[in-house]
Structure formats: structure tokens, C-alpha cells
Amino acid sequence: MSSPTDTTGTSTTLITNIASLVTNDPSSGDGSALGLIQDAAVVIDGDRIAWTGDSREAPATDNRVDAGGRAVIPGFVDSHSHLVFAGDRTQEFNARMSGRAYSAGGIRTTVAATRAATDRELERTLTRHLDEALRQGTTTFETKSGYGLTVQDEARALRIASAHTDEVTYLGAHIVPPDHADDPAGYVALVTGEMLDACAPYARWIDVFCEKGAFDGDQARAILTAGRAKGLHPRIHANQLSYGPGVQLAVELDAASADHCTHLTDADVDALANGGTVATLLPGAEFSTRAKWPDARRLLDAGATVALSTDCNPGSSFTSSVPFCIALAVRDMGMTPDEAVWSATAGGAAALRRDDIGRLVPGARADLLVLDAPSHVHLAYRPGVPLVSAVWREGAEVSGRRTDAGS
């Protein structure tokens, strides 16, 4: 049980009759990584958690909500998405799933559509997917540029994104665009120079797609080092399609996360286990491309910190559903339901180097989900079922369909 904090001066709310509460605090409840408390209650003071514990010991509050015997977990933290884009790649997906060759250009197709879109069109697409994600329980999200690939288009993507989240990532180094196909060195110079100068004011992070056909290890190092000199912290698309230097570079540069991590050597796994870089796994991409699944079990058994995220993007993972990714991780990546839920909440927070989200402990931001189920295990046990019945963000209910909880 957590001790109550001072609840004077702001409106306080008690959520009680919680069948099981995931706190992600090992010092609480059953002592597991999830810190499970049965027959629990939560007190919210303003936008923060003030108290968690046995419902019979809950302090008095101004307001009361009955969870109706449901489970409560922290809001999902989606630490990897690409939501500032235009266009549609349905034909590409259909061809891929039908076993036909498709040559529409992949990322380049989205780049062309994004460059042609207005600011209003890009923001409308962004907010539509954010609302969709929120209804499914995502209360914190990171999103990237990477579909403009000009100084003007990358900067406007980040400006639009920064109006909706603090977790904004500059990904000018997504691919070398067609207009620089004959001069990749010149494009790297642009990404580390004029484009970086224009984008840095809107971003917290810098990312690079370190992969054959995109940017090699030396180019990735130059890009991330330049970003770090401008105050942006590194993260990296690493080892998605093949073995490569991405993971080792991420750990060397103290990147917050190495994302994808599908093709790993033993040395890569050891580096992640012994460094401060989170391995962010993105099962939506493997689902949508029928590619090899990342081996989460191998990483977890080695002691690496693992996050789960959607990689929501119009080409290789067009899903905003963290519950779907949890189910995939349990079914196909060797994770237990407990591990998958932790990775989609506290793991995502670690990938963003945040300790105020992804947990339900006094002082943390009051981001939480009420599930239409008695246990978090149902997120994997009942795949595809919309179990998120209420979403609270910063202490306020922002989405809900509860039928028997009162106040």
C-alpha cells in the first residue's frame, strides 16, 4: 500500500471496487514487477496519483467512482510512431498479402503525398489517429517526422506534432529521398546541417534508420552525434531487416531506445542487457510484412529492458492498437501477459526516459485505463476485443463506455 499524499487544495477522486490494480511498483501489492493489488483503490489529486492500496483503507475524497470489479492498469505509452503523413498504401499492403510484387515505392510514395499535403490535412490525419489510439488506451505517444525529407517539410511535420505531444522525434534520416539519390553524402550533410537547425527547436529526440538501403553505421553515427550536439537525444531504428551496427551504435551513444531489434547477435543482446538502451519491439511491423518475429524471450532472459510499441505508420504497421501488439507479443514473441503489459506501459516510459508515466504510484501522472475485464491478462486472453472501457489522462476521464460505474 502507498501512503496518501496531501490532498488539500484540489479536487480528489477515489476509484474503488477495482478487481486488480497494476501499479508497476514492485514494492506494492504482490511484490511482482507489476505490483498487483487485489480489491484495490486509487486516489487521484488533480492530475496526479495521490494514493493506491486496499479499497478498505482508502482515504476520504471529494468524488467517488466505482470501477465495477474491473481491472485498472497504467495508460499505454506508445514510444514509436510515424503519424505525420498523407496518402494511403492500401494497394501495397494488398499486393504484399496476396503474394504479388509491388513497385509503388514504399516510403517514397508517402513522401510524395506528404509533401503535397497542406498543414491542415497533415494535422487532421495526426489527430484522427491520436483519437483512435486514445480510445484504445494510449495516453502518451511519441511521433516522428520522416515523410517530408526537405528542410521545410521536416520542420513543418515536427511543428505540427509538437502541438500535440512533447515526445517529438526528428527523423530526417528515414531514407535518402529520390532528389538526393545520386548524392547520399550531400543528403547526410543536409540532415546534419540546415535541416537539423530548422527542426531542433520542435524536437526532443533524433532518430535514424540504420539499415541496408537507408543509412550505414558511419552515416548514422554522424547524424546522431550532430543531433546530440544540438540538444536532441538519440534513438535509432536498428537491426530490423538484417544484422547490422545499429544496436551496438545505440548502446555506445546511450540512445534511449533501439527500435525493432529483430536480427540480433549474442553481442547485441549482451550490449542491450548491460547498457542503458531499451529494446523497443514493434510486432505490428512483423504482422504486416510477414517478417521474422523479434525474440523477446531471448532479450528478457538476458536482462534487457523491453518496450512494446505500435510503429503506427501507413506502410508497414498501420495499427494504433497497443492491445493488439500485446496479444501478438504474447502469442508470437515469447512474452508472458505480465511482461507484455509491463513493456507497453513502464517499458514505453523507460524508452522515453520518463518516470512520471507508465506507473500508478503517488506523484505519477494520473494516466490509467479501466478494462472491461477482471485482470490485465485478458488483453492477451481476448485478442481483438475492445476491452478498454475508460481512459483517464492527467486525472480526467477522457474516453469511456462504462455502464455500471457511478460517481
pLDDT below 50 for ≥5 consecutive residues: which ranges?
A: 1-7, 403-407
Overall average pLDDT: 94
What is the total tally of β strands?
A: 17
CA-to-CA gap between the ends?
A: 24 Å
Helix content: 25-40%
From the alpha-carbon coordinates, what is the Rg to the nearest angstrom? Answer: 21 Å
How would you characterize the largest beta sheet? Answer: 8 strands, parallel
Structural class, by secondary structure, is: alpha/beta
Strand content: 15-25%
Specify the number of helices.
14
Assembly level = single chain
How would you characterize the overall build of this protein?
This protein is an alpha/beta fold and 407 residues long. Helix content is 33%, strand content 22%. It has 14 helices and 17 strands. It has helices at 90-97, 107-116, 119-135, 151-162, 184-192, 194-199, 217-229, 246-252, 266-274, 283-289, 296-302, 322-332, 337-351, 378-381; strands spanning 12-21, 37-45, 48-54, 63-74, 76-78, 138-141, 143-144, 168-173, 205-210, 233-234, 236-238, 257-260, 278-281, 306-308, 368-371, 388-393, 396-400. Strands 7, 8, 9, 10, 11, 12, 13 and 14 form an eight-stranded parallel beta sheet that branches. It has a seven-stranded mixed beta sheet with strand order 3-2-1-4-15-16-17, with no helix packed on it. Helix 7 (217-229) links the parallel strand 9 and strand 10 (233-234). It starts with 11 loop residues before the first strand and ends in a 7-residue tail after the last strand. Mean pLDDT is 94; it is low at 1-7 and 403-407.
